[in-house]
């Protein structure tokens, strides 16, 4: 009995400071069982058949744990912070990712100012449309369509305006810190504009960065509309001046044959994608389709992907799903009358719990 009382007292002592500081623990556990079938056909000048696979896998998909909090500073202003990390629930790898968000900032009636690793305004405006209706699954639209700038960015200094009749603006700058000879405060600039009201979402994104020889630039438009149980979303993005590199994450190709380099620069590209979600009580049917292509130098590369899925919500925090996805990557080489194609088909059964 005494041990129980002591344990309770210790737990209360530890929890009290966190409660007073307004700390919230949150996260997501997402695990899937996948059947992956990848076929590769390559030209005669190199062999990547060893990357072919037809196998079952267990994957942790975007599982994470995070801590966030705030402190009231008075006069309508508060300090805010967030620290988040990935956790691999498939193999138990703790703190599996250091690429998630972590920042400190101030917020008030004037808007929000943050410094640290965080999502860019480009990403926020693009993804706010809900285009990723099966995000983190095998039918993730960003992966199927190779949408750009989807990770968080280190050393970002960001400002987000308050909503003005449904309109919100955001801008971020990132110092180069000596990378590629860049030592300025705003070597990367990212901006986003969002309008959201009455089921309509409209977003516009822009991002540019200093780079050796080029200033890669991205711009994009996104939109969605919700009508009762149906939601439709679409995005379009354009990339120029060396902004796009179509990487295929399913396999490792020989050096120089799966990236854009000096000898084979991919200087221009575009991406578009659409998705739809129809909700019926605790169930939802979802579909997505996207296409990416980049052109320049000696190679033209493109990728097309689509996916469908059925989702069932056991509660507001727990759901299970079955999805099917298919994507095709093609590398057309102008020197050799042949092409490399990679076809990947995946059937995935998964479960998601949020806390």
UniProtKB/TrEMBL annotation:
Which GO terms of the cellular component aspect does the record hold? cell outer membrane; pore complex
Q: Supply the CDD domains for this chain.
A: gram_neg_porins
Taking the first listed entry, what is the main subcellular location of this protein, grouped into a coarse class?
membrane
Membrane topology field:
Multi-pass membrane protein
Q: Which Pfam families match?
A: Porin_4 (PF13609)
Q: What is the annotated signal peptide range for this record?
A: 1-21
Question: Residues in domain Porin?
Answer: 8-331
Query: Subunit arrangement?
Result: Homotrimer.
Name the chain's protein.
Answer: Porin domain-containing protein
Organism of provenance: Solemya velum gill symbiont
């Amino acid at each position: 009995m005494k041990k129980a009382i002591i344990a309770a007292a210790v737990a209360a002592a530890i929890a009290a400071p966190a409660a007073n500081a307004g700390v919230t623990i949150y996260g997501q556990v997402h695990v899937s069982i996948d059947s992956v079938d990848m076929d590769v056909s390559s030209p005669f000048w190199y062999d990547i058949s060893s990357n072919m696979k037809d196998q079952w896998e267990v994957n942790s998909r975007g599982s994470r744990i995070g801590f966030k909090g705030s402190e009231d500073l008075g006069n309508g202003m508060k300090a805010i912070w967030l620290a988040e990390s990935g956790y691999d629930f498939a193999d138990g790898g703790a703190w599996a990712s250091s690429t998630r968000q972590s920042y400190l900032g101030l917020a008030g009636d004037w808007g929000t100012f943050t410094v640290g690793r965080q999502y860019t305004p480009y990403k926020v405006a693009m993804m706010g449309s809900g285009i990723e209706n099966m995000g983190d699954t095998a039918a993730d639209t960003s992966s199927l369509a190779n949408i750009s700038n989807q990770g968080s960015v280190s050393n970002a200094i960001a400002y987000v305006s308050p909503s003005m009749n449904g309109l919100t603006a955001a801008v971020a700058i990132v110092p180069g810190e000596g990378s590629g000879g860049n030592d300025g405060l705003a070597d990367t600039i990212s901006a986003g504009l969002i309008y959201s009201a009455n089921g309509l979402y409209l977003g516009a994104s822009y991002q540019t960065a200093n780079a050796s020889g080029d200033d890669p630039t991205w711009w994009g438009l996104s939109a969605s509309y919700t009508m009762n149980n149906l939601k439709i979303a679409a995005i379009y993005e354009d990339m120029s001046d060396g902004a796009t590199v179509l990487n295929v994450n399913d396999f490792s190709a020989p050096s120089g044959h799966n990236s854009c380099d000096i000898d084979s620069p991919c200087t221009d590209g575009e991406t578009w994608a659409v998705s739809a979600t129809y909700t019926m009580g605790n169930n939802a049917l979802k579909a997505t389709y996207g296409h990416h292509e980049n052109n320049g130098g000696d190679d033209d590369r493109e990728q097309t992907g689509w996916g469908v899925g059925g989702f069932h919500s056991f509660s507001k925090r727990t759901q299970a799903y079955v999805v099917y996805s298919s994507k095709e990557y093609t590398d057309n080489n102008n020197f050799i009358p042949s092409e490399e194609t990679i076809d990947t088909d995946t059937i995935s059964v998964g479960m998601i719990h949020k806390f």
